[in-house]
Amino acid sequence: MRILVTGAAGFIGQMVVNALAARDVLVLNGAERRISAILAADIAEGPLNALAASHHRVHALPGPLSSPDVLDRIAEDAPDLVIHLAAVVSGQAEADFDLGMAVNLQATIDLINACRRMPKPPVFLFSSSVAVFSCAANDTISEDTLPAPRSSYGTQKLMGELLVRDATRKGFILGRSLRFPTISVRPGAPNKAASSFASGIIREPLAGQDAILPVGRDLRLHLASPDRALAYTLHAAGLAQDSVGGDTTLTLPGVTVTVGTMIDTLARIAGTDVAARIKPAHDPAIEAIVASWPGQILTPRALALGFEPDSDFADLIASHMGRIAAE
């Protein structure tokens, strides 16, 4: 089978491409299939070329998803699995409305239309977010809570979910929208996501650098490790469409933890001198966005479908430290 990964130059995208390239087979729609080729798409050409140079089955497709040439190549390639990770992150989507709409919404429309030109509907994984929800006070909600986003990013992701649902109903794709928890700990430089601090307050102190904490210690977060995000993605691809049905959106389980507990866990694992590198600097704009997200989400449907969360926040730190040590 052939696989398309959009946003392949991003951190999670590279993890997905590398994981797929390292295996010969993958369960797709309930049946084991042999992987013949992986098409890695992104606007960042350098990382794509590096992926293609590292794996003989990976082929780079540089350029925006708005490009007719890129969309034609995708339609001609006719992948059996589309993993749509390309996105503008939350803070950036809030600051630049037009960019967020172009990447988070219009590119999804264009990609679904490319799928309509294929001889058979592909399994289509859409990367969504818990930002589709809103809470008055960082509350606990269930996966059945009606979405009511309070950010442009969350709104764009919700519109994408609805498009995936309707395109599945119409038989254009076999869709699964995955509402990922906030991912922590991401390596590398901070990005423009409102939740970037959730990685920064661990990553930077462990690297000997100061980190800015823009929110209060009592704020709760619904988290998953990068390794768990990868596992969720591959597991979702393997689900038989009958088990998903017409309700194509899956809210994924996560670890619920307060920011204060995150800091205390870092101090316990790495030492109080490391945790002391976290410097409070309240940012009302960031806190307003993140505090509107649920602090905990109950996800019985995803659990019943076999999605297993990380055990606790210490595991997330250990996963990051292990990744850094292996580099």
Describe the secondary-structure layout:
Layout: E1 2-6, H1 11-21, E2 25-28, E3 31-34, E4 37-42, H2 45-54, E5 58-62, H3 68-77, E6 81-84, H4 90-95, H5 97-116, E7 123-129, E8 140-142, H6 152-169, E9 174-180, E10 182-183, H7 197-206, E11 211-213, E12 220-224, H8 226-238, H9 241-244, E13 249-251, E14 255-258, H10 259-270, H11 272-275, E15 278-280, H12 284-291, E16 296-298, H13 300-304, H14 313-326
Parallel strand pairs: 1-4, 1-6, 4-5, 6-7, 7-9, 8-16, 9-13, 10-12, 11-15
Antiparallel strand pairs: 2-3, 12-14
Notes on the protein architecture:
The chain has 327 residues and is an alpha/beta fold. It has two domains: 2-183 and 224-251, Rossmann fold (3-Layer(aba) Sandwich), CATH 3.40.50.720; 197-221 and 255-295 and 310-326, UDP-galactose 4-epimerase, domain 1 (Alpha-Beta Complex), CATH 3.90.25.10. It is built from 14 helices and 16 strands. It has helices at 11-21, 45-54, 68-77, 90-95, 97-116, 152-169, 197-206, 226-238, 241-244, 259-270, 272-275, 284-291, 300-304, 313-326; strands at 2-6, 25-28, 31-34, 37-42, 58-62, 81-84, 123-129, 140-142, 174-180, 182-183, 211-213, 220-224, 249-251, 255-258, 278-280, 296-298. A seven-stranded parallel beta sheet has the order 5-4-1-6-7-9-13, sandwiched between helices. A three-stranded mixed beta sheet has the order 10-12-14. Helix 1 (11-21) packs across helix 8, helix 3 (68-77) packs parallel to helix 5 and helix 5 (97-116) runs parallel beside helix 6 (152-169). The longest helix is centred in the first third of the chain and has 20 residues, at 97-116. It is globular, with a radius of gyration of 19 Å. The mean pLDDT is 95.
